[in-house]
């Protein structure tokens, strides 16, 4: 199937899914059901376990204006553990993850907010979960990832050309790694943290901080993080890289740490800790504040939507997520924070097609 036919095929499927939507969650077996098991095909409703694991109360003071969440077109199929999403030209890109009973999917779905629909783009050359993604100089980068369930990382890296709808290989990571957080800053791609190891007894969070130079096609080691973490929320604020939360080897040992990297000094410094320690969450800069939402912990899936104001150095709680999830894709498009896919219960056993957006407007 060529690229044009593939797009028509998926657009038709996405339209059918959207047209058959019956509610935010759907009923088991219904066309509008938005959840699926990792071990058995077929749509299901929201698992009963979610009622016990979902947490939305925040210890942070409530914001004066809480904002609101709205439902948007669901994903073409339930997905989770993409780990991150990114925005380009007013569209959101989701790459890799779990879906349709596999954990090494090469899916590349693009959300068009003007049409409220999902579009199929060229798939990753190597399917994986927990792929680090970021846009730098009009190219989408996909860095590392796991080829088994949250383990067994690979070192391959790719760059996507939007106009050509094509991926090309770039220099691999120095060592196989998954759940690497990626951001673009000053013409380079920064990869921060992640996890290495093929099995859970040996799987460890790392303190790496690497920078990729696209002109030289080369990775360079910079000052490592003070504490090794993966599944973090990482973004650029005021010319510095901020790393918020994440896990130290496991979600049983989530962190509330918040560090900022000064690119001029090649140095990390502590910042105001998170109100809610979490990992597998979304982190974006929206209206000048750092918003965090979603994530998981021990028998917990977080729906807290908390924001840090760099000007006042204060955290506040905003309207919690309608559907708490972890391992979701989160990106700002226009005046909305879009949160798509993710797992509604702890671990990777259930995926969702849920897509909701937050706005202060």
Helicity, as a percent range: under 10%
The end-to-end span amounts to 42 Å
> How large is the share of residues in beta strands?
35-45%
What's the count of strands?
34
Task: Evaluate the radius of gyration.
Answer: 19 Å
CATH domain class = Mainly Beta
Write the CATH architecture name.
Answer: 6 Propeller
The structural domain count equals: 1
Shape: globular
List unreliable stretches of 5+ residues: 1-29
Name of the CATH superfamily: Kelch-type beta propeller
Secondary-structure class = mainly beta
What is CATH's topology name?
Neuraminidase
If you average the pLDDT, what whole number results?
92
- Biggest β-sheet, characterized? 4 strands, antiparallel
Oligomer: single chain
**Side-by-side strand order of the widest sheet:** 4-34-32-31
Separate helix tally? 2
Description:
By secondary structure, the protein is mainly β. Helices cover 6% and strands 42% of the residues. It is built from two helices and 34 strands. It has helices spanning 3-19, 49-53, and strands at 35-37, 43-44, 54-55, 68-71, 85-88, 91-95, 108-112, 117-120, 132-136, 139-148, 151-161, 166-170, 181-185, 188-192, 195-196, 204-205, 209-213, 218-221, 233-237, 240-244, 247-248, 250-254, 258-262, 267-270, 282-286, 289-293, 296-297, 300-302, 305-309, 314-318, 329-333, 336-340, 350-352, 355-359. A four-stranded antiparallel β-sheet has the order 4-34-32-31, with no helix packed on it. Mean pLDDT is 92; it is low at 1-29.
